[in-house]
Amino acid sequence: MSESSEEKVAKKSLNFIEQIVEKDLLEGKNDGRVQTRFPPEPNGYLHIGHAKAICMDFGIAQKYGGVCNLRFDDTNPTKENIEYVEAIKEDIQWLGFQWGNEYYASDYFQQLWDFAVQLIKEGKAYIDEQTPEQIAAQKGTPTTPGTPSPYRDRPVEENLELFNKMNSGELEEGSMVLRAKIDMASPNMHFRDPLIYRIVKTPHHRTGDKWKAYPLYDFAHGQSDYFEGVTHSICTLEFVPHRPLYDLFVDWVKEGKDLKDHRPHQYEFNKLNLNYTLLSKRNLLALVKEGLVSGWDDPRMPTICGYRRRGYTPESIRMFVDRIGYTLYDALNDMALMESAVREDLNKRATRVSAVIDPIRLIVTNYPEGKTECLSAINNPENPDAGSHDIMFSRELWIERDDFMEDAPKKYFRLTPGQDVRLKNAYIVTCTGCKKDEQGRVEEVYCEYIPQTKTGEPESNRKVKGTIHWVSIAHALEAEVRLYDRLWKVENPRDELSRLVNEEGLETIEAMKRMINEQSLEVRTQCYVEAFLAKTQPLDHFQFQRIGYFCTDKDSVPGHLVFNKTVGLKDTWAKMNKQ
User: Fold this and answer.
1) CA distances to 200, 256, 298, 493, 557 from 92, in Å
2) DSSP conformation letters of 182-205
3) DSSP classification of residue 402
4) Which element (helix H / strand E) includes 70?
5) Which of 39, 50, 152, 395 has its CA 20 to 30 Å from the CA of residue 74?
6) What is the pTM of this model?
7) Rounded to 10 degrees, what is the CA torsion of 39, 315, 303, 534?
8) 225-281: per-residue pLDDT in tens?
9) Are strands 273-274 and 332-333 parallel, antiparallel or unpaired?
């Protein structure tokens, strides 16, 4: 039976991982099960690159009725702690996903230890006492074979005794390692007797002082997948050369077992790379420790919690990941694509409000002193069910300073003497002049309103070319507004950082200081918002009309409102770069 055109279109729209999963299900592999895992190391907060992996791992399981487990790769206690564990779980759930089971690589320390002992007894592993430098040197190069370690053929009983000493605490860190005995002439450098255990004396956040010898990633990962019953082990492209070693260790752990060939298979996809963004937990940690940002959740940081605090939504991040897709080659994605996604999402959900972030006083000279009016403002024109809220109008208003120009060019359609403009949701006014201070800076702007032009009245349809927003001075709330921009001045900070360190000899932190955009944060403290925002809560989303999308910051409290700029209404960054 031939495929219908609809089936062909649906198949073409699948990413290559989905095509693999569907083929496996069609062939009945793994008894028709789909089981994935998301395996973060709890040594920092998740960043936007992890969001792509989360969407893949959890998304595949959701789409095919499977399960995705969360497994913490906690094999290096020197960098890991419970703070990161809890933060990772919070971020996954905020993105809209829930794991089936929660595991830790440390759950398998005994099984991995027993497997290592088995390899020693089978002559497939040995204790090496060389220094890291000696081991690296004798591994050879991709074009020349390595030379065997002088300890490669030490007796099994001696290896077992030393392996136990590695875990007893009597040996110093770095004095010995356990290596798998594979092939020192293999063209795959990962096969040249890889390290599988090392000594670490730092207490573990879960197991305490029980272990002093810890497995390395390549040894722990595949076996953990196997122990858990993972069917599709999905990771990024840098693990392609590791895949043969992954398969070999799984073969070894299965060897001699009377089991069906149910085994995990590793598949790789491209990383998420963004311009003007540095994705490295090590470097992000350095930014935090050096105080170059306020913390992991600084809204300039590419961490998931940073994007959340800045006002990004989980829907917008998932939309962005879906749009850039999954391929077998790495590429540098434009930040404008991500900003477009959040802009599109917030346009549908954000409440429209008036806020003035660079205020100047506007006096409606013919409006009665002491009079106020309650007007109505639509909450979101994209959503008829969003309703409306009240706004107060009075004789004295705050407007944006750049909404007035005394000597305006021909196509300036805002306030200038003799020109009409509409005050949004209120009246059409005619600008009559301004007052300046001794330095010539405008202090006040004057206008007269036309009463019959109130929004909603019969003559409100009178045409004017400009509309500006405003806030009643008598009813306004003072606020702090934080305006964010790119953290880095260079388009590819990863490559530039490497160049500065390797070619110019700078320390990493000094290189990062050179690349940081000094205008990445501007704090404005004398801003005004309408009274509707008095009870706003952290992470509430708003469109400050004619300015951009903002959210309420966690520092915001009654009496001291704080808002973060999420993204502008348009992509101004691209225009700036073209100038």
Assistant:
1) 30, 38, 18, 27, 27
2) --TT-SSGGGSS-EEEEE--SPBT
3) G
4) strand 67-72
5) 152
6) 0.92
7) -140
8) 999 999 999 999 999 999 999 999 999 998 766 556 678 999 999 999 999 999 999
9) parallel
